Automatic annotation (TrEMBL), chain A:
Keywords from the UniProt entry: Membrane, Transmembrane, Transmembrane helix, Transport
UniProt-listed InterPro entries: ABC_transp_perm/SBD (IPR051204), MetI-like (IPR000515), MetI-like_sf (IPR035906)
Protein's recorded name: Osmoprotectant transport system permease protein
Residues passing through the membrane, by range: 31-54, 75-99, 157-177, 189-209
Bilayer disposition of the protein: Multi-pass membrane protein
Pfam family, one: BPD_transp_1
Ranges for domain ABC transmembrane type-1: 27-206
GO cellular component terms given for this protein: plasma membrane
Protein location: Cell membrane; Membrane
Family: Belongs to the binding-protein-dependent transport system permease family.
GO terms of biological process kind: glycine betaine transport; transmembrane transport
UniProtKB/TrEMBL annotation, chain B:
Family the entry assigns: Belongs to the binding-protein-dependent transport system permease family.
Predominant cellular place of this UniProt entry's protein: membrane
Annotated keywords: Membrane, Transmembrane, Transmembrane helix, Transport
Topology of this chain in the membrane: Multi-pass membrane protein
PROSITE patterns: ABC_TM1
An individual GO BP term: glycine betaine transport
Name the UniProt record assigns to this protein: Osmoprotectant transport system permease protein
Domain ABC transmembrane type-1 residues, every copy: 17-200
One GO CC term, this protein: plasma membrane
Subcellular location per the Swiss-Prot or TrEMBL entry: Cell membrane; Membrane
Lineage, highest ranks first: Bacteria, Bacillati, Actinomycetota, Actinomycetes, Pseudonocardiales
Length: 240, 218
């Protein structure tokens, strides 16, 4: 428990809470890297996934990208990119965007694709144009899966942004790698606590966001445990 | 890309490839062995499920570099020990598979279980002979995800000095020699795809009854 005490003392030391090397500054940098990469990934992945899901063309691309890119080692990608675009925030951002596009793309695609055809026919029957069907019907129905993709992407990006420290950037990874370089185990452990805590807090916030913005009509609890699978799902309380 | 570097370093490439494979495969096997009983517990007892599934979710959110760095303090191992990487990746495999196995077991139709019980299967035999085989398609799907990410994650270990092919990344970065990095990335991707393909084939072999369902994807 000696380590535990040391880590607590590390956190209580005011010197670790100020300046560009302090916890707040590095936490802010870490969040900035994460937000920037996720924003770019969302701008690429959500419209593309929605379009592919709506037209049902090119679905194999989504599946291929989601499966294939999981095998790509981010550290390798990052160090390789540094060779091409030089050191700085750009290689990290590219690596994080490459990491977060597949889950967002897959979530959006699956969400739009899985919208009940009867609902889409009804929307068309009401006179909606294709872009309205997508924007007013399919995308709202897809929200739970889009946020699911966003949660996966966010967690991966928060975890992977730590390796930015390896190419000299800021962020919470600095505590891990600086501590490693100096054999300062307390600092490494403190950094580890910070990254894990950030991942958990953000995961909790996204879970709350999901509960907040998912349409109440979609909030039927999924069947769990040994509940009979054959039970008919009665949407919206209208018994057939 | 300097192609001549590859034959000149064939021995080292092979050695790191073997190390990489070892660091990735032990956790997958250990994780599978640990998560079958845990998944069974989670499916059998609602209380176990209420504890195990959220706990697995929490473990899965801990970043890999973080876990690599923190484990020596918990396990009493040295920072440079391979055991840290193996334990960390085992934790991820278990975190991923416990939920998968519990869900797969829950999806076994109640009538099948009732039929097996009526034929005189006792619970342990019934689990091994009926429920587990029927859970294989979902189990293999989860195992494929775990395998691919495990093979890719091993390389992060290079940051703390044990990372198989990941050593080519840190070294190539320090020497500003992209050839090494490209070789490392290519081999890891190939290894992951090969592992994925092997599991796909094993899954097909273990579930002959699924072959009649034409075009059934995962």
């Amino acid at each position: 428990m000696n380590l535990f005490v040391q880590v607590v003392e590390w956190f209580l030391d005011p010197a670790h809470w100020s300046g560009t090397r302090g916890v707040p500054a590095r936490l802010a940098d870490h969040l900035a890297y994460t937000a920037q990469a996720l924003l770019i990934a969302a701008v690429i992945a959500i419209p593309l996934g929605a379009w592919i899901g709506h037209t049902r063309r090119g679905g194999f691309l989504v599946v291929g990208a989601a499966n294939g890119l999981r095998a790509l080692p981010e550290l390798g990608l990052l160090t390789l990119l540094v060779g091409f675009v030089g050191i700085g925030l750009l290689p990290l951002t590219i690596a994080l965007v490459v990491l977060s596009v597949p889950p967002l793309l897959a979530g959006t695609y699956a969400g739009v694709r899985n919208a009940d055809p009867a609902v889409i026919d009804a929307a068309r029957g009401m006179g909606m144009r294709e872009h309205e069907v997508l924007a007013k019907v399919e995308l709202p129905i897809a929200v739970p899966l889009i946020i699911g993709g966003l949660r996966t992407a966010t967690l991966q990006v928060i975890a992977t942004a730590t390796i930015g420290a390896y190419i000299g950037l800021s962020g919470l990874g600095r505590f891990l790698l600086d501590g490693l370089a100096r054999n300062d185990y307390t600092q490494m452990a403190a950094g580890a606590v910070l990254v894990a805590a950030l991942a958990l807090v953000v995961e909790g916030l996204l879970g709350a966001l999901q509960r907040l913005i998912v349409s109440p009509g979609l909030r039927t609890a999924p069947a769990r445990g040994r509940a009979p699978r054959q039970a008919p799902v009665v949407a919206g309380g209208i018994a057939s | 890309m300097i192609w001549s570097w590859i034959p000149g370093n064939a021995d080292r490439i092979l050695a790191l490839l073997v190390e990489h494979l070892r660091l990735a495969l032990i956790p997958i096997v250990a994780g599978l062995v640990l998560s079958v009983p845990l998944g069974w517990l989670a499916n059998r007892y609602p209380l176990a499920r209420a504890i195990l599934v959220p706990a697995a979710g929490v473990l899965y959110t801990i970043p890999s570099l973080t876990l690599f760095v923190v484990l020596p303090g918990i396990l009493g191992t040295r920072i440079l020990s391979e055991i840290n990487i193996i334990v960390a990746l085992t934790i991820y495999t278990v975190a991923l598979l416990v939920r998968t196995i519990a869900d797969a077991l829950a999806a076994v139709p109640g009538l099948v279980i009732a039929a097996a019980t009526a034929m005189g299967y006792r619970p342990a035999r019934r689990f091994l002979d009926i429920e587990l085989p029927l859970a294989i398609p979902v189990l293999v799907a989860g195992l494929r995800v775990a395998t691919v990410s495990s093979i890719s994650l091993v390389s992060v270990g290079a940051l703390i000095g044990v990372g198989g092919l990941g050593e080519f990344f840190t070294e190539g970065f320090q020497l500003q020699f992209p050839t090494e990095i490209i070789v490392g990335v290519a081999l890891i991707v190939l290894l992951a795809l090969a592992g994925d393909a092997v599991l796909l084939v094993i899954g097909r072999i273990l579930t002959p009854w699924n072959r009649q369902a034409a075009g059934g994807g995962t």
